[in-house]
Amino acid sequence: MALVNENFLKLKAGYLFPEIGRRVKAFVDAEPVKAKSLIRCGIGDVTEPLPDAAREAMKLAVDELGARETFRGYGPEQGYEFLRKAIADNAYAGIEVSADEVFVSDGSKCDTGNILDIFGKGIRVAITDPVYPVYVDTNVMAGNTGEGDESGRFEGLVYLPCTAENNFVPALPEEKVDLIYLCYPNNPTGTVATREELEKWVAYAKENDSIILYDSAYEAYVQGSDVPKSIFEIEGARDCAIEFRSFSKNGGFTGVRCAYIVIPKELTGSTTSGERVSLHGLWARRHATKFNGCSYPVQRGAEALYSVEGKMQVARLVKHYMGNAALLSEACQKLGLSVYGGEHSPYVWVKCPDGVDSWGMFDKMLNEAQVVVTPGAGFGAAGEGYFRISAFNTRENVEVVCERLVSLLG
Ligand code: MLT
User: Fold this and answer.
1) Residues 88 and 185 in one domain
2) Which of 124, 153, 197, 330 satisfies CB 3.0 to 4.6 Å to 177 for a cystine?
3) Distance (Å, whole) CA 177 – CA 173
4) Per DSSP, what are the bridge partners of residue 159?
5) Ligand 1 centre from 325 Cα, in Å?
6) Cβ proximity of 320 and 393 under 8 Å
7) Is the CB of residue 299 below 6 angstroms from any atom belonging to ligand 1?
8) pLDDT per residue over 65-98, tens digit each?
9) Which residues span the domain enclosing 334?
10) The whole model's pTM is what?
11) How far is the CA of 303 from the centre of ligand 1 (A)?
12) Which helix (H) or strand (E) covers residue 260, if one does?
Protein backbone atom coordinates (compact mmCIF):
# COMPACT_ATOMS: atom_id res chain seq x y z
CA MET A 1 0.00 0.00 0.00
CA ALA A 2 1.44 3.36 -1.00
CA LEU A 3 0.75 5.60 1.95
CA VAL A 4 0.23 9.23 1.06
CA ASN A 5 1.71 12.25 2.80
CA GLU A 6 -1.34 13.05 4.91
CA ASN A 7 -0.03 16.50 5.68
CA PHE A 8 -1.34 17.52 2.26
CA LEU A 9 -4.85 16.72 3.47
CA LYS A 10 -4.57 19.50 6.03
CA LEU A 11 -4.56 22.01 3.15
CA LYS A 12 -8.29 22.54 2.82
CA ALA A 13 -8.28 25.41 0.33
CA GLY A 14 -6.56 25.26 -3.07
CA TYR A 15 -3.38 27.29 -3.57
CA LEU A 16 -4.43 30.95 -3.68
CA PHE A 17 -3.74 31.88 -7.29
CA PRO A 18 -5.24 28.77 -8.94
CA GLU A 19 -8.27 29.35 -6.68
CA ILE A 20 -8.57 32.89 -8.01
CA GLY A 21 -8.12 31.54 -11.53
CA ARG A 22 -10.98 29.11 -10.91
CA ARG A 23 -13.30 31.90 -9.76
CA VAL A 24 -12.30 34.09 -12.69
CA LYS A 25 -12.97 31.25 -15.12
CA ALA A 26 -16.43 30.74 -13.61
CA PHE A 27 -17.11 34.45 -14.20
CA VAL A 28 -15.82 34.28 -17.78
CA ASP A 29 -18.03 31.26 -18.51
CA ALA A 30 -21.09 32.90 -16.97
CA GLU A 31 -20.56 36.40 -18.38
CA PRO A 32 -18.72 36.05 -21.70
CA VAL A 33 -19.62 39.54 -22.88
CA LYS A 34 -18.54 41.36 -19.72
CA ALA A 35 -15.47 39.15 -19.53
CA LYS A 36 -14.16 40.62 -22.80
CA SER A 37 -13.04 43.71 -20.90
CA LEU A 38 -11.50 41.82 -17.97
CA ILE A 39 -8.23 43.27 -16.61
CA ARG A 40 -6.03 41.07 -14.44
CA CYS A 41 -4.31 42.75 -11.50
CA GLY A 42 -4.37 39.63 -9.35
CA ILE A 43 -1.23 37.48 -9.51
CA GLY A 44 1.92 39.56 -9.79
CA ASP A 45 2.81 38.48 -13.30
CA VAL A 46 4.77 40.80 -15.55
CA THR A 47 3.31 42.03 -18.84
CA GLU A 48 6.13 43.93 -20.56
CA PRO A 49 8.45 42.30 -23.12
CA LEU A 50 11.76 40.82 -22.02
CA PRO A 51 14.71 43.22 -21.98
CA ASP A 52 16.55 43.10 -25.33
CA ALA A 53 19.86 42.39 -23.60
CA ALA A 54 18.45 39.14 -22.15
CA ARG A 55 16.77 38.13 -25.41
CA GLU A 56 19.90 38.65 -27.47
CA ALA A 57 22.03 36.74 -24.98
CA MET A 58 19.57 33.85 -24.97
CA LYS A 59 19.49 33.71 -28.78
CA LEU A 60 23.29 33.57 -28.93
CA ALA A 61 23.29 30.84 -26.29
CA VAL A 62 20.79 28.79 -28.28
CA ASP A 63 23.02 29.16 -31.35
CA GLU A 64 25.99 27.92 -29.30
CA LEU A 65 23.98 24.81 -28.52
CA GLY A 66 23.55 24.34 -32.28
CA ALA A 67 27.25 23.73 -32.97
CA ARG A 68 29.25 20.72 -31.68
CA GLU A 69 32.21 22.90 -30.68
CA THR A 70 30.11 25.06 -28.37
CA PHE A 71 27.39 22.60 -27.43
CA ARG A 72 26.79 22.08 -23.68
CA GLY A 73 24.89 19.31 -21.95
CA TYR A 74 24.29 19.16 -18.22
CA GLY A 75 25.60 22.25 -16.54
CA PRO A 76 26.82 22.63 -12.97
CA GLU A 77 23.87 22.04 -10.60
CA GLN A 78 24.68 25.16 -8.59
CA GLY A 79 24.69 27.38 -11.68
CA TYR A 80 27.36 28.39 -14.17
CA GLU A 81 30.32 30.25 -12.72
CA PHE A 82 29.67 33.20 -15.10
CA LEU A 83 26.23 33.82 -13.58
CA ARG A 84 27.18 33.16 -9.95
CA LYS A 85 30.02 35.63 -10.33
CA ALA A 86 27.84 38.22 -12.09
CA ILE A 87 25.34 37.99 -9.22
CA ALA A 88 27.99 38.31 -6.50
CA ASP A 89 29.69 41.22 -8.29
CA ASN A 90 26.53 43.14 -9.21
CA ALA A 91 23.60 42.23 -6.96
CA TYR A 92 25.94 42.20 -3.93
CA ALA A 93 28.44 44.91 -4.90
CA GLY A 94 29.89 46.22 -1.65
CA ILE A 95 28.30 43.41 0.38
CA GLU A 96 30.19 40.31 1.51
CA VAL A 97 28.81 37.55 -0.73
CA SER A 98 31.05 35.34 -2.86
CA ALA A 99 30.14 33.58 -6.10
CA ASP A 100 30.28 30.14 -4.48
CA GLU A 101 27.67 31.18 -1.94
CA VAL A 102 25.15 31.72 -4.76
CA PHE A 103 22.98 28.78 -5.87
CA VAL A 104 21.10 29.35 -9.14
CA SER A 105 17.67 27.79 -9.57
CA ASP A 106 14.51 28.04 -11.64
CA GLY A 107 12.46 30.10 -9.21
CA SER A 108 12.07 31.55 -5.74
CA LYS A 109 8.73 29.84 -5.21
CA CYS A 110 10.52 26.48 -5.54
CA ASP A 111 13.50 27.66 -3.49
CA THR A 112 11.45 28.96 -0.56
CA GLY A 113 9.56 25.66 -0.49
CA ASN A 114 12.51 23.35 -1.15
CA ILE A 115 14.71 24.90 1.54
CA LEU A 116 12.72 22.95 4.13
CA ASP A 117 14.49 19.79 2.89
CA ILE A 118 17.58 20.77 4.87
CA PHE A 119 15.81 21.48 8.16
CA GLY A 120 14.77 18.86 10.68
CA LYS A 121 11.37 17.79 11.92
CA GLY A 122 9.84 19.53 14.88
CA ILE A 123 11.29 22.96 14.18
CA ARG A 124 9.33 25.98 15.37
CA VAL A 125 8.50 28.22 12.41
CA ALA A 126 7.42 31.87 12.50
CA ILE A 127 5.67 33.53 9.59
CA THR A 128 4.18 36.95 9.15
CA ASP A 129 0.45 37.34 8.63
CA PRO A 130 -0.47 38.26 5.88
CA VAL A 131 2.17 36.27 4.02
CA TYR A 132 3.17 34.81 0.65
CA PRO A 133 1.16 31.56 0.91
CA VAL A 134 4.02 29.30 -0.25
CA TYR A 135 5.78 29.62 3.13
CA VAL A 136 2.74 28.33 4.99
CA ASP A 137 1.65 25.63 2.58
CA THR A 138 5.12 24.12 2.25
CA ASN A 139 5.47 23.94 6.03
CA VAL A 140 2.12 22.17 6.20
CA MET A 141 3.28 19.71 3.53
CA ALA A 142 6.54 19.14 5.41
CA GLY A 143 4.67 18.24 8.58
CA ASN A 144 5.76 21.28 10.57
CA THR A 145 2.18 22.13 11.57
CA GLY A 146 -0.96 20.65 13.04
CA GLU A 147 -4.42 21.14 11.58
CA GLY A 148 -5.76 24.40 10.15
CA ASP A 149 -8.63 26.33 11.72
CA GLU A 150 -11.57 28.18 10.15
CA SER A 151 -9.48 31.29 9.45
CA GLY A 152 -6.82 29.20 7.68
CA ARG A 153 -4.27 29.40 10.51
CA PHE A 154 -2.32 26.24 11.29
CA GLU A 155 -1.62 24.90 14.74
CA GLY A 156 2.09 24.94 15.53
CA LEU A 157 3.06 27.92 13.38
CA VAL A 158 3.94 31.15 15.16
CA TYR A 159 2.01 33.92 13.43
CA LEU A 160 3.44 37.43 13.51
CA PRO A 161 0.62 39.86 12.71
CA CYS A 162 1.48 42.70 10.32
CA THR A 163 -1.02 45.48 10.67
CA ALA A 164 -1.36 49.14 9.78
CA GLU A 165 -0.50 49.86 13.44
CA ASN A 166 2.96 48.25 13.17
CA ASN A 167 3.52 49.49 9.57
CA PHE A 168 3.27 45.86 8.47
CA VAL A 169 6.59 44.99 10.11
CA PRO A 170 5.92 42.48 12.90
CA ALA A 171 7.07 42.60 16.49
CA LEU A 172 9.72 40.05 17.49
CA PRO A 173 8.26 36.71 18.60
CA GLU A 174 7.67 36.40 22.32
CA GLU A 175 8.95 32.86 22.24
CA LYS A 176 11.98 31.17 20.74
CA VAL A 177 11.55 30.14 17.12
CA ASP A 178 13.95 28.27 14.82
CA LEU A 179 13.01 29.59 11.37
CA ILE A 180 11.61 33.02 10.53
CA TYR A 181 10.31 33.97 7.10
CA LEU A 182 10.66 37.66 6.28
CA CYS A 183 9.90 39.23 2.89
CA TYR A 184 10.78 42.86 2.11
CA PRO A 185 9.72 44.75 0.04
CA ASN A 186 6.78 42.77 1.24
CA ASN A 187 4.47 40.58 -0.71
CA PRO A 188 1.51 41.19 -0.29
CA THR A 189 1.49 44.52 1.56
CA GLY A 190 4.14 46.27 -0.56
CA THR A 191 5.70 47.77 2.58
CA VAL A 192 9.39 47.81 3.53
CA ALA A 193 11.47 47.16 6.65
CA THR A 194 13.96 49.79 7.78
CA ARG A 195 17.59 49.06 8.59
CA GLU A 196 16.86 49.42 12.33
CA GLU A 197 14.02 46.92 12.11
CA LEU A 198 16.17 44.39 10.29
CA GLU A 199 18.95 44.91 12.84
CA LYS A 200 16.50 43.91 15.57
CA TRP A 201 15.62 40.75 13.67
CA VAL A 202 19.25 39.81 13.14
CA ALA A 203 19.96 40.39 16.84
CA TYR A 204 16.96 38.20 17.76
CA ALA A 205 18.06 35.44 15.38
CA LYS A 206 21.61 35.42 16.72
CA GLU A 207 20.45 35.39 20.33
CA ASN A 208 18.00 32.55 19.73
CA ASP A 209 20.08 30.52 17.27
CA SER A 210 17.37 30.94 14.63
CA ILE A 211 17.66 31.26 10.87
CA ILE A 212 15.99 34.09 8.93
CA LEU A 213 14.74 33.07 5.49
CA TYR A 214 14.81 36.44 3.77
CA ASP A 215 12.84 36.75 0.55
CA SER A 216 13.93 39.82 -1.36
CA ALA A 217 12.37 38.97 -4.72
CA TYR A 218 11.16 42.58 -5.03
CA GLU A 219 14.45 44.33 -4.13
CA ALA A 220 14.66 46.02 -7.55
CA TYR A 221 11.68 48.18 -6.59
CA VAL A 222 13.39 49.80 -3.60
CA GLN A 223 13.76 53.51 -4.34
CA GLY A 224 16.77 55.31 -2.87
CA SER A 225 19.43 53.81 -0.63
CA ASP A 226 17.92 54.12 2.88
CA VAL A 227 15.86 50.95 2.65
CA PRO A 228 17.97 47.76 2.69
CA LYS A 229 17.68 45.57 -0.40
CA SER A 230 19.45 42.64 1.19
CA ILE A 231 19.52 41.15 4.68
CA PHE A 232 23.29 40.89 4.19
CA GLU A 233 23.53 44.67 4.44
CA ILE A 234 22.92 44.10 8.15
CA GLU A 235 25.95 43.27 10.26
CA GLY A 236 25.84 39.76 11.64
CA ALA A 237 23.32 38.48 9.08
CA ARG A 238 25.86 36.08 7.59
CA ASP A 239 25.59 34.08 10.83
CA CYS A 240 21.82 33.77 10.75
CA ALA A 241 20.28 34.34 7.30
CA ILE A 242 19.61 32.83 3.90
CA GLU A 243 18.44 35.14 1.11
CA PHE A 244 16.15 34.35 -1.82
CA ARG A 245 16.14 36.42 -4.98
CA SER A 246 14.68 36.10 -8.43
CA PHE A 247 14.94 37.48 -11.96
CA SER A 248 11.14 37.28 -12.32
CA LYS A 249 10.17 40.74 -11.21
CA ASN A 250 13.25 42.73 -12.28
CA GLY A 251 14.07 41.14 -15.66
CA GLY A 252 10.51 39.99 -16.32
CA PHE A 253 11.55 36.32 -16.13
CA THR A 254 8.27 34.92 -14.73
CA GLY A 255 7.97 32.76 -17.84
CA VAL A 256 11.70 32.30 -18.42
CA ARG A 257 12.45 31.05 -14.87
CA CYS A 258 15.66 31.90 -13.05
CA ALA A 259 16.35 32.73 -9.41
CA TYR A 260 18.98 32.16 -6.75
CA ILE A 261 19.64 31.63 -3.06
CA VAL A 262 22.59 32.98 -1.09
CA ILE A 263 23.80 30.81 1.79
CA PRO A 264 26.89 32.11 3.60
CA LYS A 265 29.55 29.45 4.14
CA GLU A 266 29.78 30.10 7.88
CA LEU A 267 26.02 29.59 8.44
CA THR A 268 25.21 26.49 10.47
CA GLY A 269 22.28 24.58 11.92
CA SER A 270 22.34 22.00 14.64
CA THR A 271 21.86 18.24 14.92
CA THR A 272 19.76 16.90 17.81
CA SER A 273 23.01 16.08 19.59
CA GLY A 274 24.22 19.67 19.24
CA GLU A 275 26.79 19.22 16.48
CA ARG A 276 26.95 22.24 14.14
CA VAL A 277 26.44 21.50 10.44
CA SER A 278 27.02 23.79 7.44
CA LEU A 279 23.72 24.75 5.77
CA HIS A 280 25.70 25.69 2.65
CA GLY A 281 27.01 22.11 2.49
CA LEU A 282 23.56 20.60 3.02
CA TRP A 283 21.96 22.77 0.35
CA ALA A 284 24.79 22.00 -2.10
CA ARG A 285 24.12 18.30 -1.50
CA ARG A 286 20.36 18.75 -1.86
CA HIS A 287 20.65 20.85 -5.01
CA ALA A 288 23.09 18.42 -6.66
CA THR A 289 20.80 15.49 -5.91
CA LYS A 290 17.42 16.92 -6.86
CA PHE A 291 18.24 19.55 -9.50
CA ASN A 292 20.20 19.46 -12.74
CA GLY A 293 20.68 23.17 -13.10
CA CYS A 294 18.82 25.97 -14.77
CA SER A 295 19.11 25.91 -18.57
CA TYR A 296 22.21 27.41 -20.19
CA PRO A 297 20.38 29.95 -22.43
CA VAL A 298 18.36 31.17 -19.45
CA GLN A 299 21.48 31.65 -17.34
CA ARG A 300 23.09 33.63 -20.18
CA GLY A 301 19.92 35.75 -20.34
CA ALA A 302 20.09 36.40 -16.60
CA GLU A 303 23.78 37.29 -16.82
CA ALA A 304 22.97 39.85 -19.54
CA LEU A 305 20.66 41.72 -17.15
CA TYR A 306 23.86 42.88 -15.42
CA SER A 307 25.37 44.33 -18.62
CA VAL A 308 25.25 48.11 -19.03
CA GLU A 309 22.29 47.87 -21.44
CA GLY A 310 20.65 45.18 -19.31
CA LYS A 311 20.76 47.35 -16.20
CA MET A 312 19.24 50.27 -18.11
CA GLN A 313 16.49 48.08 -19.52
CA VAL A 314 15.67 46.64 -16.08
CA ALA A 315 15.56 50.18 -14.66
CA ARG A 316 13.06 51.12 -17.39
CA LEU A 317 10.84 48.15 -16.56
CA VAL A 318 10.90 48.97 -12.86
CA LYS A 319 10.09 52.61 -13.62
CA HIS A 320 7.15 51.55 -15.76
CA TYR A 321 5.63 49.31 -13.07
CA MET A 322 6.31 51.87 -10.35
CA GLY A 323 4.50 54.48 -12.47
CA ASN A 324 1.54 52.11 -12.53
CA ALA A 325 1.74 51.64 -8.76
CA ALA A 326 1.69 55.41 -8.27
CA LEU A 327 -1.43 55.78 -10.43
CA LEU A 328 -3.24 52.98 -8.61
CA SER A 329 -2.29 54.35 -5.17
CA GLU A 330 -3.42 57.83 -6.12
CA ALA A 331 -6.76 56.63 -7.48
CA CYS A 332 -7.49 54.67 -4.29
CA GLN A 333 -6.39 57.54 -2.06
CA LYS A 334 -8.66 59.96 -3.93
CA LEU A 335 -11.53 57.60 -3.19
CA GLY A 336 -10.77 58.00 0.52
CA LEU A 337 -9.41 54.45 0.91
CA SER A 338 -6.42 53.71 3.15
CA VAL A 339 -3.54 52.72 0.90
CA TYR A 340 -0.20 51.08 1.79
CA GLY A 341 2.79 49.90 -0.23
CA GLY A 342 3.33 50.96 -3.82
CA GLU A 343 6.30 53.21 -3.00
CA HIS A 344 9.07 50.60 -3.02
CA SER A 345 7.00 47.79 -4.46
CA PRO A 346 4.75 46.87 -7.36
CA TYR A 347 1.95 45.95 -4.94
CA VAL A 348 -0.66 48.34 -3.61
CA TRP A 349 -2.41 47.15 -0.45
CA VAL A 350 -5.77 48.75 0.09
CA LYS A 351 -8.26 48.71 2.97
CA CYS A 352 -11.68 47.58 1.75
CA PRO A 353 -14.51 50.10 1.93
CA ASP A 354 -16.58 49.86 5.13
CA GLY A 355 -18.79 46.81 5.30
CA VAL A 356 -17.00 44.87 2.54
CA ASP A 357 -14.64 41.99 3.33
CA SER A 358 -11.71 40.82 1.18
CA TRP A 359 -13.50 38.20 -0.87
CA GLY A 360 -16.52 40.53 -1.09
CA MET A 361 -14.22 43.14 -2.63
CA PHE A 362 -12.74 40.55 -4.96
CA ASP A 363 -16.26 39.64 -6.16
CA LYS A 364 -17.34 43.26 -6.44
CA MET A 365 -14.30 44.22 -8.51
CA LEU A 366 -14.74 41.15 -10.72
CA ASN A 367 -18.49 41.36 -11.26
CA GLU A 368 -19.03 45.10 -11.31
CA ALA A 369 -15.73 46.44 -12.68
CA GLN A 370 -14.24 43.39 -14.46
CA VAL A 371 -10.96 43.84 -12.62
CA VAL A 372 -9.20 40.93 -10.92
CA VAL A 373 -7.53 41.80 -7.61
CA THR A 374 -6.26 39.53 -4.84
CA PRO A 375 -8.30 39.29 -1.63
CA GLY A 376 -6.16 40.08 1.42
CA ALA A 377 -7.64 37.15 3.34
CA GLY A 378 -6.02 34.82 0.80
CA PHE A 379 -2.66 35.80 2.32
CA GLY A 380 -3.72 35.03 5.89
CA ALA A 381 -6.22 35.92 8.58
CA ALA A 382 -4.65 39.35 9.19
CA GLY A 383 -5.16 40.18 5.50
CA GLU A 384 -8.92 40.16 6.00
CA GLY A 385 -10.39 43.58 5.22
CA TYR A 386 -7.75 44.38 2.58
CA PHE A 387 -7.21 43.72 -1.11
CA ARG A 388 -4.03 43.80 -3.19
CA ILE A 389 -3.74 45.40 -6.61
CA SER A 390 -0.78 44.32 -8.69
CA ALA A 391 0.87 47.08 -10.73
CA PHE A 392 2.25 44.56 -13.21
CA ASN A 393 0.30 45.63 -16.27
CA THR A 394 0.32 47.91 -19.29
CA ARG A 395 -0.12 51.64 -18.62
CA GLU A 396 -3.29 51.61 -20.69
CA ASN A 397 -4.86 48.89 -18.56
CA VAL A 398 -3.85 50.58 -15.32
CA GLU A 399 -5.49 53.82 -16.46
CA VAL A 400 -8.68 51.91 -17.21
CA VAL A 401 -8.51 50.20 -13.79
CA CYS A 402 -8.24 53.63 -12.13
CA GLU A 403 -11.31 54.86 -14.05
CA ARG A 404 -13.27 51.78 -13.12
CA LEU A 405 -12.33 52.15 -9.45
CA VAL A 406 -13.74 55.67 -9.54
CA SER A 407 -16.97 54.55 -11.24
CA LEU A 408 -17.35 51.70 -8.76
CA LEU A 409 -16.53 53.46 -5.51
CA GLY A 410 -16.63 57.18 -6.29
C1 MLT B 1 2.17 37.06 -6.32
O2 MLT B 1 1.28 37.50 -7.06
O3 MLT B 1 2.08 37.07 -5.09
C4 MLT B 1 3.38 36.47 -6.95
O5 MLT B 1 3.45 36.78 -8.28
C6 MLT B 1 3.36 35.03 -6.84
C7 MLT B 1 4.71 34.46 -7.08
O8 MLT B 1 5.68 35.19 -7.29
O9 MLT B 1 4.77 33.23 -7.04
Assistant:
1) yes
2) 124
3) 7
4) 127
5) 16
6) no
7) no
8) 999 999 999 999 999 999 999 999 999 999 999 9
9) 6-49+309-409
10) 0.96
11) 23
12) strand 259-262
